[in-house]
Amino acid sequence: MIRSTFAGFTTAQLAMSASQRALDVTGQNIANINTRGYSKQRLEISSLNNNGASFYSSKNGAKVGYGVEVTGISQLRDPFLDVQYRNQMSKLGTTDSLAAGYEQLTGIFDEASLDGVRAALRDISSALQKYSEEPNAKEIDTTVRSNMQILLNLFHDNAKRLQDITDEMTNDFQSNDVADVNQMLENIAELNKNIKNSQVLGNPALELQDQRNDLLDQLASYLPLSVKYESREIAPGQFLEVPNVYYTGTDGQTFTLVSDTDCGSLSADISGHPVRLSITGANGSGTADITDTIPSGTLKGTLDILNDSGAFDKGGSSVNGLGYYQTTLDSLVKTFAETFNALNIPVKKDQNGNYTVDKNGDPILEDVPAKMCPLFEKIDPNADFSASNIKIADGWMRSDYGITISKKVVNGEIGSTDTSNILNMINALKDPQKFESNGVSFFTGSFYDCFASLENTLAIDLKSANTTVQNQISVLKQTASTRDGVSGVQLDEEGMDLMHYNQSYTAAARLMTTLDEALDTLINKTGIVGR
């Protein structure tokens, strides 16, 4: 049986059409080489074969297909690499938030180029040393008090800046981080709707899918997620892949963030401490507090900075958050105030006006609060000493009394030239003190060394976070490079495809010309032999 006369022309026409469409796809790839989140597109084709058997079929017949069929356009993406990339984004989000928080604290506790707390402690020591050498120069008491006020001003400023950082991070967490996550969830659900509507009309909506994948990448930096595609029948024999986005906490609870065109949401409670975060799943799948169960992501890093206090937390925490630095600073201030108030308690006098001693000859100190001559008082008497709750005692400020110069009693009198108590204060500044809070002892050393230790701790935390960030960025870049090798547009590959498809188009055109020549021979040159 002779093949249909025009079948070859159909084959050539389909080949030209497929090559033309392939050139169009290549042009689309080249045009979007710099488009964020764009995935390389590929023309899907298949061989157009005979369907069924021929009436004149015989065992000696050779059947040839009818050309090529364009079945669609698809994206080149590797789901496994998407999972790797998003997991790494989540890890990076955690550490990057920690590093950002520590970076803000350096403005408070990094005194490498500033005259801050440590310089003020040195000035107090120098003023006390001068006072011990000139105990009758009462104006030096005023100098010591002025230096003490400078130190308290620094404590107040540090406390205020710590509170400002806390307030700013808390507000940003609610108004930016949580709000951004909710907006992305809504956008993903809206994209699902638009993609589905387009696919129903026969449009694969690949560009919309790119937007959705880009949003999923961004969302993964805030909290870990997993994406599963569900095949749904929208018409008899017509199926669509619908993505569902899930979040799973460290406690094993799983919540649906996005289900088709419905989405869940997050909400933050910043009214108290600690800051709390709750999730509401899509399609009413439940609500829960996830503050302590977020595995990774920007939200976890920010919550760790805001809520954790390191060793001061019950059971201890691996993160030295704002609470750690606030508690450490408050403990330093409390120990400083109580130490100097105790050293300034004067010797008690008897009813005759003589200074008293016990049976061992040691001075008996005043036990009446009104006569104990404290150097420091609490701004809020109902709260403990802290960086924000300390001031120069009113009595000392009014010069009702000054620094207790000596407590050495001889025959009911204190020598006018003895300055042993001032020397005790100088020694207290440099001698080891035990610093603790909430039953946790965190440092033993001088006041100067305690603040220096606080600086060192911050430097170590910041360096550790930055080092981890750099390592995670390196791993992320490697993963992104591998993923781009699959789904990214490469100019060299597209250039080769242009030449390849151009040649195939030319070859198909040549096939049509050849068939035309053969048909001309059949029609005009067959059967004229011998004429």
List its salient traits:
three-stranded antiparallel beta sheet; 11 helices; about 50% helix; about 15% strand; rod-shaped; FlgK
How would you explain this protein's 3D organization?
- With 531 residues, this protein is an alpha+beta fold.
- The chain has a domain at 7-76 and 489-516.
- It is built from 11 helices and 15 strands.
- The chain has helices spanning 7-31, 79-109, 117-133, 139-200, 206-220, 298-307, 322-343, 394-397, 420-430, 447-487, 491-525; strands at residues 41-48, 67-75, 226-235, 238-248, 254-259, 262-263, 265-269, 276-280, 287-289, 376-377, 391-392, 409-410, 413-414, 433-437, 440-445.
- The strands form 6 sheets. The chain has a 4-stranded antiparallel sheet, with helices on one face.
- β12 (409-410) and β13 form a beta hairpin.
- α3 packs antiparallel against α9 (420-430).
- The two termini are 29 Å apart.
- The model has no long low-confidence stretch (mean pLDDT 90).
- Residues 11-38 form the Flagellar basal body rod protein N-terminal domain.
- Residues 103-344 form the Flagellar hook-associated protein FlgK helical domain.
- Keywords: Bacterial flagellum, Cell projection, Cilium, Flagellum, Secreted.
